[in-house]
Design brief:
With about 290 residues, this protein is α/β, with parallel strands linked by helices. The protein is about 35% helix and about 20% strand. α5 packs across α6 and α5 packs across α9.
């Protein structure tokens, strides 16, 4: 949709991010920057929606002039019950973070895996061309599922998942296998996490360990191959202890901020008709608000 199309409509396009709570969201900073950068009229706002009000909120989107929006905790799974079209990855992962109107119907998809992969593609091109394709993923929370799905899409032969509570990791792997995407996965013991680094080409921390206000991530990198890529989805602080320690021993590292920025790209394009760019200027803007 072009800007001229927007200019001919009586109501400017509006998008949103909903969650409970939502005050912490950086999404308005990202999308407002892109609107200004591309000379587009429109708005993006954060709205606190209690779980009991989600269905009513979704039902009123058109009447309130919304073209779509983002969905965060705790609505990512529940939103699927209130949309018309669920796209492939959202269906596979049973969660969505982006909704938009298309052809008169409300569509839902997840862009978290796209954001994770695009962040690595931008900062370390060809990162996924390793011949062995073995990844170690720390954490079995909600963030790990789209990341694991993305790694499987990129052809990783073995993905080892470790979590402080092993039962949670086993449950996640069982769920993924039921969805037809967990055949390359194994579960390791948390106490063996440092030893499990010996053969991996990619180390991903999807847990909150190391985040400001959370316990530190206790992990020895002695067994990690020097050729392995290390990435952490935590971005407060931007350089976690894991990334600092990996960089100090010569490993290539990628911080987690880019995942947040890249996952926002498809939604903006759906709502406002322009594919935005993830730039250093945007990174610095978001960092200045954290």
């Amino acid at each position: 949709m072009s800007q001229s199309t927007h200019a001919n409509t009586a109501v400017l396009p509006k998008a949103f991010v909903i969650g409970w709570p939502i005050a912490h969201s950086k999404s308005p900073t990202i999308h407002t920057h892109w609107l200004k950068q591309n000379g587009l009229s429109g708005s993006y706002e954060k709205i606190a929606v209690e779980p009991c009000n989600l269905e009513r909120f979704v039902g009123s989107l058109k009447d309130n002039g919304f073209v779509g929006g983002n969905v965060t905790i705790p609505h990512k799974e529940a939103i699927l019950s209130f949309v018309d079209v669920v796209h492939t990855n959202a269906k596979r992962l049973r969660a969505a973070n982006t909704v938009w109107f298309e052809g008169g119907k409300l569509h839902a998809d997840t862009t978290d895996g796209y954001g994770f992969l695009s962040n690595l593609d931008q900062h370390q091109p060809n990162w996924d061309q390793s011949s062995d394709g073995k990844a170690l993923v720390l954490g079995a929370g909600g963030a790990s599922r789209p990341i694991i799905n993305g790694l499987i899409e990129r052809g990783f032969k073995t993905i080892t998942l470790v979590n402080r509570t092993k039962e949670r990791a086993e449950s996640l792997v069982e769920t993924l296998r039921d969805l037809g995407i967990g055949s390359s996965m194994v579960v390791g013991d948390w106490q063996d996490r440092s030893e499990l680094l010996a053969e991996c080409s990619l180390l991903v921390n999807t847990s909150s360990l190391g985040m400001v206000g959370q316990p530190p991530l206790d992990l020895s990198l002695d067994a990690l191959p020097s050729s392995a890529l290390v990435t952490d989805i935590v971005y407060t602080p931007l350089e976690t202890n894991l990334l600092r320690d990996a960089k100090a021993r010569g490993n290539v590292t990628v911080d987690g901020l880019g995942m947040l920025l890249h996952q926002a790209v498809p939604g903006f394009e759906h709502w406002f008709g322009v594919r935005p760019a993830v730039t250093d200027e945007l990174r610095q803007l978001v960092l200045s608000t954290t």
